[in-house]
């Protein structure tokens, strides 16, 4: 059995006074304190970060963390663009399967606001292919191309995807750690300045700083002693072409489909068992594609269901999605996101989600995507 | 700065894609580009499928920029991709225009 | 024999009107249009340069000929606005056209006659057997200093000629070149905009060199202006060609079909050649055409050409290319030229 013992996130947003590793240190220190676990009990650390190499010329983060903690334990860094966090969780789970009785920290962090938007946009495009970069594309542009195909194929309008942002801001309003704690209306989303048509500012997740960390263990004694814990029933990862035009389908992310199918099979549960999920809404369209690709919604009906706000807190829907505010409202510090998602499900399953609490939750899912779908990680938790 | 060697390697592929016709599968207009593309913004980017089968992304520089449609016919041409006025080697690449 | 097998051209579609430039500087556009005889000029887009335009015109020239690429062992690129101060565009052009390995590439500069000098040089290479065919391309994205007179005329365009000994659509009967050291128009290394010596660019420069070259070649070949169907001269504006033609004895009727400068502006190395293309599109078999280029600094290359029956098979749609236009305003023009 592999279980989560604790979770901590820093505030997400523009954190001028804190550097990347200030955020890492804060998350690890706070996490250990709140979980009442000592540093010496940690056997390894998995560190997730995408852009410190490109933006700050800082790599070898594992060694930097060793310095901060004054330790010699093994520390691993993972990078899969925006799925770096999910990948770190997956790798930690594999490590624990191979090393029973151990306890690890998975920490992800990103520092993006020290740089101009153009530098951040360019850095993010490292997650796309050379051809996509030479075409002058940006990540909003890539997802806009996907959005156009989706809207055109299934006869939807901008409002059918914009509604996702409204929902996620409603949730973010309830999350103290969110980058944006304010609600938005559909009208505001549809009229927000265009970034890459049809996507406007309010269809796109922001550039944020932040760090998140969780403790995972395969130590049965610790699990028994823990006041609040939930188990990781499955963690599966799938890859796909980096160039989205080389993929089998342009209206679906196959990596999500493959990872999702593997995760549900491994966990031995049905889609309808999932009551709460954190989906990768880097752009409004991405959450809709995610719902369809994970099998919660049929292909093509996402636009309709999104506009009906079926997955919003307080609605009678069978699954509530992105109570953290998603990437859109909580913020998207790239390396931290995948871990924050797992952490939010942990909070939901252990009844620590305050005003965002969904009731009767036994199973939850986290869905983390890298780039335009080159990597997808699906993690299923249960209590 | 992109390595001139990288540009040199890429140029061989670019030659093979020039003067080809195809159809638009998707399009968007980019308003917030990265640095090297700032001077061209806002600009349309297309995903097109060439009649020879390959799928290609690139900027559109034809006359129908106010009326882009999925299914439109295009052809590939040679243009500068990055607009920079510095010491780097110039990056030439594929863009799209109207079929004729 | 030596001559042209096929030709290609490229005119970017943006145009800016003289009146839209004049109004920015508070000038009277009617006066300017009257003295320059230029109503509007072509402007290349921000992502176009002399190389991308040369690729377009060369592709057209190669498409209308069955010449094998391996027979083109000479590629000349003439421009005043090459992409690099040091780095040949001729090799980049050849690469994209699929001409490889055993060929001579050379970039040339001599103000507006950079390419026509290349024609004369190519004739020697072809006659000696160095190469069966030569590709000579003229291409410019000419910039004028804002608020200067040249701003109304400096334009963008490219013309490519495929030359050889056989299958000629146009025979080049004779060529001559007249040169001298004349400071009429120049640009120093590292300086963005060209400079000129005002009215000195007229009589001692443009007129003197074209007149001398023309007089020499006509005398040598015992030909008179009346022997020619058309006369084409380099076009810095719409009035100079008519004036120099008149000095030599050519009529307005022979010259005006080539005056593309009225609506395209002066595309520098491609200017005269664009006028030649315009005339080739309407010329008849056996027509004699007189062509003289002019390059500041200074020199003139003069050519006596004769159309063969093969020309009819390779004509294009130059007129509709001229009409394919989109007007832009001054701010957009400054963006295209990367002045802002």
TrEMBL record, chain B:
ChsH2 C-terminal OB-fold domain location: 18-75
InterPro entries documented for this protein: ChsH2_C (IPR002878), NA-bd_OB-fold (IPR012340)
Pfam families: OB_ChsH2_C (PF01796)
The protein's name: ChsH2 C-terminal OB-fold domain-containing protein
Automatic annotation (TrEMBL), chain C:
Start and end residues of each Beta-ketoacyl-[acyl-carrier-protein] synthase III N-terminal domain: 107-175
GO molecular function, one term: hydroxymethylglutaryl-CoA synthase activity
Xref: InterPro entries: ACP_syn_III_N, HMG_CoA_Synthase, Thiolase-like
SUPFAM superfamilies, A to Z: Thiolase-like (SSF53901)
GO annotation, biological process: fatty acid biosynthetic process; secondary metabolite biosynthetic process
Pfam families membership: ACP_syn_III
Keywords: Transferase
Keyword Electron transport: no
Keyword Transferase part of the UniProt annotation: yes
Protein name: Hydroxymethylglutaryl-CoA synthase
